[in-house]
Amino acid sequence: MSGSTILIVDPIGEPRISGLQLAPRPESLEGLTVGLVSNGWWSFNVVQHHYEELLKERCGVGDVVFVNVDSARIKERGFRRSDNPSQINGNLDAKSFEELASKCDVVINGLGN
Amino acid sequence: MSTSKLVEVSQSVHSMYEDLYERGWTDGLPIIPPTKELVQACVDYVGRDGGEIVAEIPPAFGVATLEKVASNAVMAGCRPEYMPVLLAAIEALLDPVFDLRAVQVTTNPATPFLIVNGPIRQQIGLNCGASALGPGWRANATVGRAIRLLLLNVGGATPGTVDKATLGWSGKFTMCLGENEEVSPWEPLHVERGFSREASTVTVVHASGSFNLYAGTRGEFDGADSALTIIAHSMTAMGTNEVITSWYNHPVLILNQIHAGIFAKVGLSKQQVKHILWERARLPMGLLPAWLAQEKRDCNLVVDGMMLLTDNPERLTIVVAGGPSGLHSTYVPCMGGGRSSVTKLIKVPGR
Fold first, then answer.
1. Contacts of B33 in chain A (CB under 8 A)
2. pLDDT at residue A2 tops 70
3. What pLDDT score does B291 carry?
């Protein structure tokens, strides 16, 4: 430490798990199953089927699976937001997470609002 | 035991500020350098090991050791004796019911609002009276700021990238007050929530903003009634999350001591005030957009053609704070969505 400097305690908290890698990205969505995770906001239930159509038309996606974090249930086609008036923007539970992992090749997260 | 690395920075106040700002370690304002000595003083006050893990703060899940909490506290300008408030606030923020992850990343301007109860208010000089939410009070300013710095530096809620707040608001720099228990005619918040009056607690709330309610009375004969009407109807602002979302909202009302006194003088308990406000804070269903009206029906929030603010008057939190003059109370609309405020005990070392 030189005369014109001081030492301070680093205020940054690093996560316990570091160095996480992104999952490998497929070169094409052709024939793949895509999961769409909704955070439960209104706009997603309006646009979800447009996403499905666009993914199939433009990208050749085989199937689309919708997941709603509200009810943490997988429904193949849509959901009602009032199914579970508990908490919006909630966390996906482990069971739904595993179902997504087993059914989907690609998952898109954070839609809506 | 120190576990954090030490970083060499310029001794010049201005150069250090520029350096730390460029690193993204500040809230944009100048900070106090967290030297080893100052940080250790905060750790020593708590009397635990500096390497102890206090929390992992979402969304980055950075590890907040006691030393990291102390470092951010020093940067914010805290004194060592503020540390127990910070530790209890972190515990409250990490309660799943609070849902900090969502608060950290949402487009909503929500920020933790800290309400402190009990004797620690006097012990650390926390303002509960005039201008308690304004500038000029070190404990109020720096306790709230330390929490913000922790949310940034440990939680990773970088504004604009991780923190998606559309606009944010100045309460995100700091928002902390003490309940003015000594002038309140009612039991304080922490007693209402099951703690002893001698206990010190902190309650964290998802504040999306605050707006002033000038609920004048213009005469004694109906003072309480008119003030209750003005306050109740102010709480039905349609763009607040309390109205827009329908899932068990928990708004907060900060009543000044005059309003609280007027209500108590006509014999109203805090619970009765909540009930009257709940009865009056309603909107005609015909005013609501069709989709919102449908949602209220889906959620059973309609009575006699009127929309209810919440399903239960007890979801409204009332605290008494502020100075002795003026008829200004404050409404704090919250993020809602099923999230609730959380109260935790402040553990003061040696007590």
1. 6, 8
2. no
3. 86
Number of domains in chain A: 1
**B-chain residues near A13 (CB < 8 A):** 57, 60, 62-65, 68, 150, 153-155
| Residues B338, A5: C-beta atoms closer than 8 Å | no
CA angle B210-B166-B93, nearest 5°? 60
* Residue A49, C-beta contacts closer than 8 angstroms, at least 6 positions apart: A78
pLDDT of residue B216: 80
Strand partners, A45: none
| Interface mutation target, options B8, B38, B42, B243, chain A, most CBs of A under 10 Å | B8
Q: If DSSP codes are grouped into helix, strand and coil, which group holds residue A2?
A: coil
Q: Alpha-carbon distance A70 to A65, whole Å?
A: 15
Q: How many domains does chain B have?
A: 1
Per-residue pLDDT of A78-101, as tens digits, reads 333 334 344 455 567 787 888 899
Residue B350 belongs to some domain of the structure: no
Q: CA-CA distance, B161 to B183, in Å (whole number)?
A: 43
Please spell the DSSP secondary structure of B71-97, one letter per residue.
HHHHHHT--GGGHHHHHHHHHHHTSTT
Task: Examine residue B79 and state whether it is found in any structural domain, yes or no.
Answer: yes
Contact A89 B102 (CB under 8 A): yes
Tell me whether residue B66 is exposed, middle or buried, using C-beta atoms within 10 angstroms of its C-beta: 0 to 12, 13 to 18, 19 or more.
Answer: buried
Q: Nearest by CB to A86, from B10, B291, B338: name it.
A: B338
Give the pLDDT confidence of B200-246 residue by residue, as tens digits.
Answer: 999 999 999 999 999 886 665 568 999 999 999 999 999 998 898 76
> Is A42 inside a domain boundary?
yes
Q: For B246, how many CA atoms within 13 A lie in the half-sphere containing its CB?
A: 22
For residue B243, what are the domain limits?
Answer: 13-345
Cβ separation A11–B295 shorter than 8 A: no
Q: What is the mean pLDDT of residues A67-78?
A: 46
- Please identify among residues 42-81 of chain A the ones whose CB lies closer than 8 Å to any CB of chain B: 42, 80-81
- Taking an 8 Å cut-off on Cβ atoms, the answer to whether A7 and B12 are in contact is no
pLDDT, residue A113, reads 59
